[in-house]
């Protein structure tokens, strides 16, 4: 299996300048390749240029501009061109599927934050000084950069990437390793119901509170964004240091919220994986859940619209995004795979409206957000617990129906 590792780098001032230059030059290569594709399609009878055509031109580009393009790894530049090719492939795939296509865009200096090295040893070398007690990674054109390795890397390193997040620099490794030994069986199964009032409710009656990291930091983030908005929109060369500090403050707040959300998701998923062999959850279509409601034209007044609850829906969408269900489910599946656990996604329809005692399904069974009261048999319980119990039952039924 393939596992990723992310470590904080401690570059010197000179190495940080070299890393910034590497990102800038790879961004220039990406934008130049994108411009070539646009021009070829517009002015050459709609001619399409592929990755192979642009990769063959790299030698000429490096020879023409040895100071900027010639000093970086050839394979990393190929990876940048391959990234552009994947962007176009995704663009055409969305067109065929009828989705919003999203034509590949030019990247600004602050929008290009990652450089990939497809193979360890080709333009980069992980832990290139094995006899040094300090872990270092070597990049062509940068040198040996110190790494804060907080855990050992298991397996053979395949790819290496450099990523910039605000003022911080990270190295991301992908290592191929054997399938880890499964955790001891517990004989327990659980169903979980994700929500807003509580982040998670399980079929045993337990609850995990919703930390609401974004909501707690909303006041600080609003003040920082207002301070940033006071600066006039001028060219990049005319921006002051105060403007740059305001940008960094907003980015730092967003980064802190993201890290808090990830930390909570990792800890919650780890507890579930350690305690249960089978975990069932709702197969939520989160992208559809956070869509804005369609406008309602007023038939009596052309050009005007009727109220459609957009303000209330916007608040719900913000709460769903703040909870981070998608990130949590991704982490849960990854941890379960490593631990030998089974995760089952079930249809979420009517899970909170079905009575677990008599099976009666009705919207009236849930008179409030938290209360469940069956109108047929009178069974009462917390609505989220009922939903989790129904999810578990549906998951076990689906598990038994699957062929061995």
Sum up the overall morphology in one term: globular
How many strands in all?
Answer: 16
Indicate the mean pLDDT: 91
Low-confidence stretches: none
| H-E string | EHHHHEEEEEEEEEHHHEHEEHHEEEH
Q: What class do helices, strands and sheet pairing give?
A: alpha+beta
Walkthrough of the structure:
The chain has 404 residues and is an alpha+beta fold. The protein folds into 2 domains: 2-176, no CATH class; 189-401, no CATH class. The chain has helices spanning 13-43, 51-56, 58-64, 74-97, 213-216, 218-229, 241-275, 286-289, 310-323, 325-339, 383-401; strands spanning 2-10, 114-117, 124-126, 136-139, 143-148, 156-165, 168-176, 189-194, 198-202, 207-209, 278-282, 296-297, 305-306, 342-346, 371-373, 380-382. The strands form 4 sheets. The chain has a 7-stranded antiparallel sheet with strand order 2-6-7-1-5-4-3. Strands 10-9-8-11-14 form a 5-stranded mixed sheet. It has a two-stranded antiparallel sheet with strand order 12-13. Helix 6 runs antiparallel to helix 7 and helix 7 crosses helix 10 (325-339).
